[in-house]
Design brief:
Chain lengths: 342, 342, 328, 328
Amino acid sequence: MFINYGQALQNALDQAMEQDPNVIAMGIGVDDHKAIFGSTMGLVQKYGAKRVFDTPLAEAAMTGVAIGAALGGLKPVHIHIRVDFLYLALDQLLNLAAKWHYMFGMQGHLPFVVRAVIGRSWGQGAQHSQSLQSFFMHVPGIKLVMPTTPYDAKGLLLAAIADPNPVVMIEHRLLYYIEDEVPEKPFTMKLGPAVIRRHGKDVTIVANSYMVVEALTAAKFLEEQKIDVEIVDPVCLAPLDAETILTSVQKTGRLLVVDTSWVCCGASSEIAALVAEKAHDALHAPIRRLGTQPVSCPVSKPLEEEFYPNAHNIVEVVYSMLGKKWENQKIPSLTTPFKGPF
Amino acid sequence: MFINYGQALQNALDQAMEQDPNVIAMGIGVDDHKAIFGSTMGLVQKYGAKRVFDTPLAEAAMTGVAIGAALGGLKPVHIHIRVDFLYLALDQLLNLAAKWHYMFGMQGHLPFVVRAVIGRSWGQGAQHSQSLQSFFMHVPGIKLVMPTTPYDAKGLLLAAIADPNPVVMIEHRLLYYIEDEVPEKPFTMKLGPAVIRRHGKDVTIVANSYMVVEALTAAKFLEEQKIDVEIVDPVCLAPLDAETILTSVQKTGRLLVVDTSWVCCGASSEIAALVAEKAHDALHAPIRRLGTQPVSCPVSKPLEEEFYPNAHNIVEVVYSMLGKKWENQKIPSLTTPFKGPF
Amino acid sequence: MQTMVDLQTISELYKIMLKIRLTEEKVAEIYPSDKIQSPIHLSIGQEAVAAGVCMALGPENKIFSTYRSHGIFVAKGGDLRLMFAELYGKETGCAGGKGGSMHLLAPEVGFLGSSAIVASTIPLATGNALASDYQDRKWVSTAFFGDGALGEGVFYESLNFAILKNLPVLYICENNGLAVHSRVEDRHHNSDLYRYGERLGVTGSRHDGDDVLTVYTVTKNAIKDILLGGPPILLEFTTCRWSEHVGPGTDHDEMYRDQDKVSQALANDPINRIQKVLQTQFEITDGQLSTWRNNIVDEINQAVIFAEESSFPSPEDLYQGVFMKQDI
Amino acid sequence: MQTMVDLQTISELYKIMLKIRLTEEKVAEIYPSDKIQSPIHLSIGQEAVAAGVCMALGPENKIFSTYRSHGIFVAKGGDLRLMFAELYGKETGCAGGKGGSMHLLAPEVGFLGSSAIVASTIPLATGNALASDYQDRKWVSTAFFGDGALGEGVFYESLNFAILKNLPVLYICENNGLAVHSRVEDRHHNSDLYRYGERLGVTGSRHDGDDVLTVYTVTKNAIKDILLGGPPILLEFTTCRWSEHVGPGTDHDEMYRDQDKVSQALANDPINRIQKVLQTQFEITDGQLSTWRNNIVDEINQAVIFAEESSFPSPEDLYQGVFMKQDI
Ligand SMILES: Cc1ncc(C[n+]2csc(CCOP(=O)(O)OP(=O)(O)O)c2C)c(N)n1
Ligand SMILES: Cc1ncc(C[n+]2csc(CCOP(=O)(O)OP(=O)(O)O)c2C)c(N)n1
Ligand SMILES: [Mg+2]
Ligand SMILES: [Mg+2]
């Protein structure tokens, strides 16, 4: 099927619900006509209001409800239209869900999935644009995936639902409209292995989620300049596939990490630290990181453009890592920019 | 005055309240006879129940109350006996407080302080032992300090209260009983500069909070083995004093980071990444990190001992960084271990 | 109740409501041009609540609000130019272009801020009232929120604290029956939202939020009582959102809408209702009305020009303002 | 009400209460030896609540609880050896030594877990009831919590959802009037906690939590109603914590204590009360009582020996169990 990311998510959820009557989908807006950017479209009609239901605005308790339901035999998929709302659920997710199986000596397990969308599109501002993967990477006990392609979206969501542990899936609004070929039959990706999006020999770029699109844009341009980058997409950030990253850096000798969130104590700092620890001798140049600037996300367009890392920044850093000077040419975009109205 | 950490905190709060009638202290248990390990002792008697008050169990709203009060001219110090409870307050702290001044174009400011204690002592388990500094380091807009000595406790708390921005102070239960000389008069430390706890030339150990005690224990032992480590205590983790750390690594060529929390996306990963980026050429050996093991904190004694990094682990890593083999001798402790009953 | 309000106040309320309506319509008109690159949550149809409450509050009492705050900004007396500039992301905006439509404020008239996290400013108003109480109840602090907010725990936590400490805080629930596309009865077993604080000790009452004179009078009385030392109060104002949840359009035909409610609301335009009072009880002429309208249209047009002509912040401004400098 | 309960049940309730008391006293006795290196929150004085509720629940209905759960573990029918081993941090403990006193569980008898974050398991019981409802109300899920929990927003969020979906959940508020050292009246304007869910639609009632027959009967009825399709119910049981908040001792003389309440509670020992019923109404002899007691003492001593003789986990066990392996 040639479908987009949102449709792939919908397709995965549909197939999971068809296969397993214990799978339920819950969350604010999952049953409305907008259907979380289409990703739950038609499911309430197909499976009924007992299995697909809207909730009151109560992220904390509803997360606890998902945990309790999982302990009762259900497999809830709890959906949030913005990652930012997860702050309200962190006590439940990190004090309870992350610790449950371990703290109770491996008794009780929590097969539930939290899906949350990074709001970036335009003008979402400080409270509707965040991506909190590093929190789930820091506290042990939750798996964290970030699908990039429609294929990932389906394969990872089906895997997440099948997994006996709590899995948080962070999606990206700007990826929702990307289309690709996706197998019709159910399939799962492993929650762990990274995906090499592009093979190359000069620089390893570890990028996740929408940052892969920017990295690919940069790579295409760099290719024309005879610079050959490798792009590693961790896809699953907890647990993290250190090996694939290290192997790539052993080959290229150079690492740039590009993350959707802030740099400080972010996913990019972990990946950088990991390589510094484990592949120090392979490095021909200092590791570099790119992420959102260390401020809150602003609404004003020129500020927002400065805030987010992009293909230009990637090219610039790659040049400097290779000791070349960057002339700041225009880089052709591979995607159509987000266009309103909202 | 020769006082302990808890008394130093009490002394600072007392002096701040004396100097400024807008300073208030709030939180569960601040006015009871245990007085948050003594750190608020006598204050309700001295300043009355309007300025020092217990709150209902409602970490989220009470944090918002502190924010709103700060916008109304008060300077609240909101105290939590465990860092773990802050998960409940993260929406207020990170979606609101951290963003307020910036998001509103520098209008409105939030002079309030959150104090929270890392619960580690014995058998505190998964939900009463965490230290979440990396969350406050990741999201821009909150200052984060971790006092190590009684001197820091006083100087940083007075500085935090005087600061026009939200400041989170993470204290450590095991430091509460450490005594030291502290000036009687009010004084402030700057929220930024790191403190060099020990000068040395062979290895830079960046350690924070109680980990400084373990690092000093290790250093004393290493000294006898003619290994001379430098110990840098960031004290303030946001903003982080990169310069002092980088200067030290430039000198020693080796970096070990020891943090009270998990390694992955923790403070230790940030410091490691920073040095890998900015002092790559100075490094004679791979950077190393130590933190709590990547599991939830267990209660059982042998597991708990394995969970926390200690002076032994530090010595072992330092040896390996210097290419020496560690024979696993007994390291004399510099502190008396925590002794119950609770 | 209506005759207790004098002509000048009624005229003022009318003008505020009209200004909100025309402002929102202008925003909707501009929106497809992509000059406003930020989600907008219009309050067309809900004007009476903002107007009545804010007029009763005056600039000296404080308010904290939500992403749906264009109306409150106008009603509280914010400078319209700063609001349009903010929507445009210009440096002259009320938040320097950093906040956008969802984060309006006008501290000079007591509008202290707004948040896009539902219910999150309810504790802020409560804490701000604590500061007022500390200064002998200098002001009333007000939390503005929708019916959706009553799902969130901080609502209850805040009310519990407010009544415990008897704080000068006013809770305004603007109940338009919807949270995005979810009806209040699908989120709450009991639809009497105004009673949700009752057992904690916070008295509430429900009123027609489309009758601006009621909104104004009820709020005025509540403020008086609170300033005299009375307990916190919860006021629920029922109203109808004419616009879609987010965006410039309408979606009256969508399934989630209660068609009867929509038609009834459209037929009882709150602005027409107060206009009729002015015309019939106070014999305000069409000429007078159109002078008012023209003045408002002028002000709005000026504001738009101001926004269009203002500069964007420069990229370096991105890095300013995470922290306030020490010496204030 | 009391005569409606048969002798066997009353005897059972008595034995459970006594077992809780003696267990807690044993824990307190051992504690100064530092063999239990974990904070303990005893429930001496509160035995009737755990006994009455858990006996009514039986093993088939589920319970989620707090750090103060020794009594619940015993009453729900957990294996005492596993509890002592857990307190000792031994690998044979009910949580393999990883949880400790604050994280007891006994899933084989429906005690699904306990958390040291106040109020945090209230939504879990609610969600677990959703799973039950999904399976035609197979069981009732119960949340056990203290008066302190009513400060937390998740309490209200959970009750709102439970009544909205009419879930088979029972909320048990064990009101000992204290949260650590803070009195309930210093945290809530209105002390009628059982009514706090009323406006959301959840009916509540308050009962003497030191009268085990009342606790049992009221809970039994609630479970019956719920299993028949009735709405969620909130039961408040008033009681008194004889011990200090945390630790093995008492602190009856501390300022925060209401001296009258303490003396009254001590004079009306809930165990004595039910013992008197057995003696006077059912003519149970002293000999019978001491046989029971001796059996309990034996069981406790056996459990302690089990704990002492069990091994600690090995350091490598630290790394086991963060995630469950895929194939279950
Ligand atoms: C905590 C939180 N959860 C979810 C959302 C997404 N959201 C934005 S507006 C909204 C509906 C709020 O409804 P209501 O409070 O009635 O306000 P209204 O939009 O009707 O003015 C929701 C669910 C949010 N912004 N914050
Ligand atoms: C969310 C949270 N806030 C604060 C605490 C600290 N604390 C532990 S027990 C307790 C008191 C709880 O009182 P209550 O719910 O009445 O239970 P009781 O101890 O009386 O059984 C507090 C405040 C906590 N564990 N969790
Ligand atoms: Mg609404
Ligand atoms: Mg209590």
